[in-house]
């Protein structure tokens, strides 16, 4: 389903969706920036004003914000994640920290090592970790589709990323977000072998019941999402999109 058609079609179907209300979700953000760039699709570039509206809404709803250590329990709530580690999200993450909201950042060593203005660097990440509200996960080493890798390449992408992040940040890396959401049986097998505890996909769904900790569904948040969109996504009304992701 092309991004240009997602909004109208998805909103219409979601409006009439009478699925059982969801209790738990993992939200996926990418970038929060006021000036559009070519680093990621425009649908994933959320204006800071809009993100602040999302944050205000979530706080007004008294949402229970989860961490990696408790998101699998039965208590309702949401886990907020960011993929790729764009530099533009730095202020946003500090806003979440100020509001005592935990967040998971999935990042690639390749991007960190660029030490550019486009991606978070080691100093940025180390400072964020001091809050004890930011958790770091892997996003592979080079941000490549893991299902297209040879076995040696796949092992390197998973293992080298985990080890590099652990060595340079002095933390344990327990989770991975598969680049582009690409996962199959071999990727899952190697993810377990390397020592990750959780694997996150881009498959659209809630997590009221997690049948496989290495294929955890998430809910995409897009640049055009209104507060109604956010609420209905958290409620599970958009979960029919799992058949298209």
Keywords:
8 helices; 34% helix; alpha/beta; two-stranded parallel sheet; 9 strands; TIM Barrel; 245 residues
3D structure, described in words:
With 245 residues, the chain is α/β, with parallel strands linked by helices. The chain has a single domain (22-243), classed as TIM Barrel (Alpha-Beta Barrel). Helices cover 34% and strands 17% of the residues. It has eight helices and nine strands. Strands 6-5-4-1-9-8-7 form a seven-stranded parallel sheet. The chain has a two-stranded parallel sheet with strand order 2-3. Helix 7 links the parallel strand 7 (175-177) and strand 8. The N and C termini lie close together (8 Å). The mean pLDDT is 93.
How is this fold's topology laid out?
Blueprint: H1 3-15, E1 24-29, E2 31-32, E3 45-46, H2 48-60, E4 77-83, H3 90-98, E5 103-107, H4 109-112, H5 122-129, E6 134-138, H6 151-169, E7 175-177, H7 185-194, E8 198-204, E9 216-220, H8 227-234
Parallel strand pairs: 1-4, 1-9, 2-3, 4-5, 5-6, 7-8, 8-9
Summary of the model, kept short:
The protein is an alpha/beta fold.
């Amino acid at each position: 389903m092309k991004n240009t058609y997602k909004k109208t079609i998805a909103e219409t179907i979601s409006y009439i969706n009478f699925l059982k209300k969801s209790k738990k979700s993992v939200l996926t953000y990418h970038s929060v920036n006021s000036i559009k760039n070519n680093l990621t699709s425009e649908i994933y570039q959320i204006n800071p004003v809009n993100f602040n509206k999302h944050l205000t809404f979530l706080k007004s709803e008294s949402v229970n914000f989860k961490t990696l250590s408790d998101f699998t329990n039965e208590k309702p709530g949401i886990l907020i994640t960011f993929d790729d580690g764009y530099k533009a999200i730095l202020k946003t993450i500090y806003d979440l920290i100020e509001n005592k909201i935990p967040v998971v950042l999935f990042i690639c060593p390749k991007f960190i090592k660029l030490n550019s203005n486009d991606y978070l660097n080691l100093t940025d990440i180390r400072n964020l970790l001091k809050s004890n509200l930011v958790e770091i996960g892997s996003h592979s080493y080079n941000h490549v589709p893991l299902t297209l890798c040879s076995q040696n390449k796949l092992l390197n992408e998973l293992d080298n990323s985990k080890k590099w992040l652990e060595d340079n940040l002095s933390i344990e890396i327990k989770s991975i977000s598969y680049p582009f959401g690409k996962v199959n049986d071999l990727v899952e097998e190697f993810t377990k072998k390397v020592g990750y505890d959780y694997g996150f996909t881009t498959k659209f769904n809630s997590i009221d019941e997690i049948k496989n900790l290495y294929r955890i569904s998430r809910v995409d948040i897009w640049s055009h999402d209104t507060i109604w969109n956010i609420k209905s996504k958290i409620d599970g009304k958009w979960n029919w999109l799992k058949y298209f992701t």
